[in-house]
TrEMBL record:
Name of protein: Hsp20/alpha crystallin family protein
UniProt xrefs under InterPro entries: DUF7127
Source superkingdom: Archaea
Amino acid sequence: MTLEQFTGEDGHLARQYEYDDGAVLAVDFGSQEEATVDLVADTVIVVIGEEQYEIDLPEAADDANTFIKNGVLTVELEGDL
């Protein structure tokens, strides 16, 4: 999972927080449009308007929970990352 793919030319604010039992990834897409998020295998797919973004999760993640609210994507990962 690379945060650089979101902070480069698109200018999205992204942070990753590491914990003993997992990690949390937060990406601010800054969009007022309705957004959806889906988890397919080890890929998080975010659709905002006509734009689609994909985030590949690390193989070491045992479980992932995703949600998006007010244009901010949160991915909670469990496992020994």
